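Exam review. A common question shows you a sequence with its structure tokens and asks you to describe the fold in words. Practice with the pair below. Do the first one on your own.
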Amino acid sequence: MQRIDIHPTHSYENFKLRPGTAIPFGATLVPGGVNFSIFSRHAKSCTLVLFNKHSPEPMAEIPFPEEFRIGNVFSMVVFELDYENLEYGYRMDGPFKPKEGHWFDPTKILLDPYAKIIGGRDIWGEKPDWYNMYHHRARLAFDDFDWEGERPLQIPTEDLIIYEMHVRSFTRHLSSGVKHPGTFAAIRDKIPYLKELGVNCIELMPIYEFDEFENSRPNPQTGELLLNYWGYSTVGFFAPKAGYAATGKYGMQVDELKTLIKILHQNDIEVILDVVFNHTAEGNEYGLTISFRGIDNKTYYMLTPEGYYFNFSGTGNTLNCNNPIVRNMVLDCLRYWAAEYHIDGFRFDLAAILGRDPWGAPLSNPPLLESLAFDPILANCKLIAEAWDAGGLYQVGSFPAFGRWVEWNGKYRDTIRQFLKGEPGKVGDMAQRLQGSPDLYAWAGRGPTASINFITCHDGFTLMDLVSYDGKHNEANGENNNDGTNDNESWNCGWEGPTDNPDINALRRQQIKNAIAMLMVSQGVPMILMGDEMGRTQLGNNNTYCHDNELNWLDWKLLESNADLFKFFKHCIAFRNAHPVLRNKFHFQNTDYAASGYADITWHGTRAWEADWSDSSRILAFMLCGRHAKQGTLTDNYIYVAMNMHWEANWFEIPGLPQGMQWHVFVNTGATPPEESWYPGTEPVLENQFGLLIGGRSVVILVGK
């Protein structure tokens, strides 16, 4: 018996049609044809526009019959399409009344918000035809990828070590030595490097389709074209960036990205995506109409009573994420990436926006954040919030977590930076940050894993620049050095920028090592920035969002010139991986619940058991009892960490160990390379088991075994 749903009921010109199914939205292959479904609450009518791939003119325009509309959804099946050679868009007709929030314009062809592949920017940096009537073109994706049984890894959050990277920057430099620089495919070639470094999770800056030519302009210094390089301006939320794929010119970016994820998982490396649901590429009243604005502006964006765009994102518009329609789109999107791409987690840019109501007020129980936290498909995905926005809402420690969300801990970043450069009055804050910030999270029943600990990220100085510049140097951005933050908490060690002074350069390297040592012995989840492990610099530019050049590209030759930094990073990461006492799921209790004779954590100063909490102190030490590792479920070594951020050396008395155990030296950042760190398991015995002289601006880590 033949299926009834493969029979057309209507025709238009040479096309055979039948009423479609309203769910799912987007374009879906069905028996004999393609089901097209799109929502618009305020449109009066909708027309499907069909193109042959790359063709400048449509091959057909098919109005949706009124009887094909179900509620506010236009849906129909078009039969006998060459779907592998198809691009499609929509025209929406309705009121053009911007003051009332409506921007309908049937002369514009609109991108499907649910498009799974988007053409039009197939090759990175290839200038488009600005006269093209339809720049970003929706295409169909096909579910024919063989995952070979691979599944997401589900690494416990407390065991993660995250490496934040930009897909293009990671391998674009000639020194990367890869076959297809700047692509998903090229990352596969660098998996042995990631494994050697010791990270088990990469966080990719935005890989959704965006337009690198958005707001492009000449560099005022060099004439070089400045681009939308970072990609925090989404065109299509369901589609991977074609320009990041070696096969993008063939429309194969979906398979290329899935292959990368599959191979990363096979090598025990998770993948987190940096996602931007706070705004889109359409901008404010003067921006382009690409998709949402022309489909249903009043639904998708937060608008003032006068019809202007609220701008809590700092980029012109703000998605109305707690409108049920937009909320469902975000859910559909993340479910799609989790199910179809096996993504392990998501980091939400300016996530505080996601908790605002349609008029911008913070919600006490934001429905979108709650829906994401309890969604059954996302149940095993990590959900990471950048818990602030450009509108001044700062929620580090108070982000609505629903037992699921974790946060980029901006207070960790600031405290470590301040302590690192020797500011007084920071030892109390440091004690909190080193423990996973219980002052921020314990009150709400959240453990150390609520804190993503970082000192540097894409947004700001690299670690080398943090110790080389007192101020930002963003002149190359063409904004008179007005862009980027002025609150860097950096210190140039005595000279602004590059220098031949060997003492300053040695101090800078020591400060970098101090920073990574502190990061890797902190409870919580450490995140390092791409290239920090080999001393990458952006020449003092703390906002390189627009540069497709060596300011952003990772120079792999740095592995040779800064081999000592790479070795130190590698050793510190290996040390963290080797010691479960550094990776607890719950906060310390400051008691001896394992009956070891020592509390789980104890605090010390230059004298054992006597920490100096005074405002003038720049010294802090602590000891972890390995009998309390993972809340006493595992046995580990004892670990002692002494941080002397004073500029003078100090003698430290060391707490005694149980009988039969000795202290061994893992790290001494004041020592001369290569003896400033040792591979875990090879640490030499400390000569004097009662104390040691720790140099100025130095960190020492001992392991008791």
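Now try the second one, then compare your answer with the model answer below.
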Amino acid sequence: MRGPWRAALALALHIAFFVTPIALVLGLLTIAVVTFRYDHTSGLKAAAAALVVGAVFAIGWRAVLRSRTRPRGVALDRSEQPQLWRMAESIATSAEAPKPDEIRITSEPTATVREHTALLGLRTKGRYLELGLPLLAALNVSELRAVVAREIGRLTSRNKLTALAHRTSASVERTAAGLTGGPTKWLFNGYARLFTAIAATTGDDLELAADAVAVREAGTRTAVLSLRKSVAVEIGWREYADDYLSMATSIGHAPDVLLGFRNFMSHPTRKPKLAERAKQAIAEEPDGRTRRRVEAMKRLKTADRELDERPAFAVLRSPRKSVPELEDRLMVDGLGERMPWPELARQAGAAHVAEQAAVLSSAVEQSGLPVEPSIAGVLAAIHRGQGRDLINPVLNPGLSPELVDQAAEDTLVDLLGCTAVDALICARRAHHELDWGGPSPVRLANGQPLDADRLVRPAVADPRLIPGLHRALVNLGVPLHHARRPAAEPEPELAGIVSPVQCAGSSYDLLVTDRGLVLLPSSASTTKRLLAGTLARFREAELEQLGELAATPVGELRERPGAQWVDSRDVASARLDQERAGWSLSLELYLDEYAVSELDDELVRDVDGASELVLRSSADGVEHGDPYQGLGELMGARMNVEEPLAAIE
């Protein structure tokens, strides 16, 4: 069953969701009134039952109905950006769809219309058209029109039942995801699964109708191209954020985000690669939805539209002024004044190699070898065959034994190469150069490029070539006495929390980081945890407490009274066992004079001369973040899992 009939059935079920409890309570009250006329005691009991049932439903409804859609991004005033508003309103009028109440710019590489609803979608209070800043950078005006038409087209009133059912389905799914726990969540999740199963095809129907609107507004070719290009924008934005926006956060300066992303997307090396990856992503979709949409759009007969190839941000008034203002309002707090991309790449590259040089000095210091942390000292140690021992302190202790040799070579090549580049930069003989096609290359003062990996790797792989590397570095003008102060121990980054776990008869909150485990004495009583499992309000309070823990620096948490620290470097092996009541984690530890863990003696037991720490899950435990994935990454090859890790989630 498809189309309006399925939508009508879904809406009938949704109306029954509200009517049935009301009818039940009214029925009980009617029974109470009738019974009271003949038997006061029985009538009062029936009235009390009606009140109890009504109170239960009221509490459940309160938890369900308080969910709301909050606007995101930066609102664009109609008087400040009339051209964009006119585009959206003309599309809405042509499509016979409701006009958006607000247009907002977000930092996400997507466009969508979000609706703030009441009664789980039955009534609409507001509509927000959200346009991602990356789309304004990567698309042209015609493609932007197609994207806006596609989103507004989802609200088309030509099939009111389908639109209403889809809006209700989205509200039900959003509410189910927002509930935190207790019987309300359990019961509502069952209803949500039933409703979304019935309303499953309404989204597809609206999607096809929305694509038809995009074709009418922008033409078939532009509508199809905008759909494919939107996929490329999402892929490109992730890479742009990882490879380029990360430069801004590393040195604390704001870049020109939109112009930078436009340069990134239009670079002659990246553009065809992104188009090919988008094409592959569409081809590999399990359900083939995008392919079907493209084929349906191609079958539509429509007149060609005049192509407007101006950048999409041309629809903004005074983009030279308005775009930087939008970026500043969307930017991460704490970034300093704006910096041009070439200078930002230069400084970010210099900061990176300086950090790596400090890591090399730290490895030399921790290795215990009588080696100077300078480039000359490291070269001499490698020549003596001590390269593996030199770099061992900064290797991941969870690596598989067969991967250690290659990891040691790669790490030493990277750190030594970065240190050589750092020395050249400090001597003003090299700098990093912005390249939108790939990583920032190193350019020597004479204009020649420098590939540090190609320069250093042969000698690291074969120490007999160290004298040749020594001569090459001298010829380049590298000061061989160069060294950085050893890097401080990096602050552990939290992966997730499990609360509570049992250890030696006591309850702890387990914090999994990328460098070890933190155990904090749990303050939650058994009664409070039982309430958290049955009442959503207590579960919300518990999740808020875990959120506060996650927001606190790990270094501060380790200083709290009773806190325990298990350093990853002290873990010899780990075993995760699936048990009937949950799981247990057994850690074999090296607790000798070189250990850096901080554990009370009563938590660790001696087993055949080895130290063992055992953690057990609790039946009423809750989680924050992704502690199990973090635990797997932390332990690596040292972890022996008796059951698939997913079984304990």
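Model answer, second protein: The chain has a mean pLDDT of 85. The chain is about 55% helix and 15% strand. Full marks require stating both points clearly.
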